[in-house]
Amino acid sequence: MLLSPRFISALAYAAQLHQDQERKVSGVPYVAHLLRVTGLVLEYGGSEDEAIAALLHDAVEDQGGMPVLEEIRRQFGDTVAETVLGCSDAHTRPKPPWRDRKQAHVDHVRAASPSVRLVVAADKLDNARSLLREYRVRGESLWNFFHGGREGTLWYYDAMLAALKGTELTALVEEVERTLREIRGIADQGREI
């Protein structure tokens, strides 16, 4: 599959929206995460619409809520906009309480479209890989960066994994599971690496 100029336009829009945002722990420009998630979506057979949604999956949640969603809809269509909305765990400020918001998102993903599940699974895989990489560097102090702390963060990843299991995403979900097993192994040891 060749990507059209529409994808390039989405890439530029995502870079613009997130240009001042960094990853929470590493400080790496946020666009790096968006590119990795998009690459995973494409590697696991995603369409151009799904790849565009991957580029924009955090735009509503992090960069302006519903007005941003409507701009995505205007530029990239209903399919992309609905996938982006399905990947968002909040679109209001202030965001709902962390645990309630994450539980609602897990519940939503269980019944979501295959497109939403693909982008969410790719997002969770990239996030889990980043978490593992930073855990190896920072050890237990890593959990201080996360609203859920150690237990809440691990709960969320386990719950999302359970929501994604048994779907059409077997290979991708297995990769998420392997990464989480490695994180859990380190966390259960309770030692710094």
User: Can you tell me the CATH class?
Assistant: Mainly Alpha
The profile of the biggest β sheet is: none
Separation of the first and last Cα atoms: 41 Å
In total, the number of strands is 0
Low-confidence stretches: none
CATH architecture: Orthogonal Bundle
Q: Provide the domain count.
A: 1
Q: Estimate the strand proportion.
A: under 5%
Radius of gyration: 16 Å
Helical content band:
55-70%
Give the CATH topology. Answer: Hypothetical protein af1432
According to CATH, the homologous superfamily is Hypothetical protein af1432
What's the tally of helices? 10
Can you put this structure into words, describing what you see?
This protein has 193 residues and is mostly helical. The chain has one domain (5-189): Orthogonal Bundle (Hypothetical protein af1432), CATH 1.10.3210.10. The protein is built from ten helices and no strands. The chain has helices at residues 5-17, 31-43, 48-55, 59-63, 66-76, 78-87, 98-110, 114-138, 149-164, 170-189. α2 crosses α8 and α8 (114-138) packs antiparallel against α9 (149-164). 37% of the residues are buried.
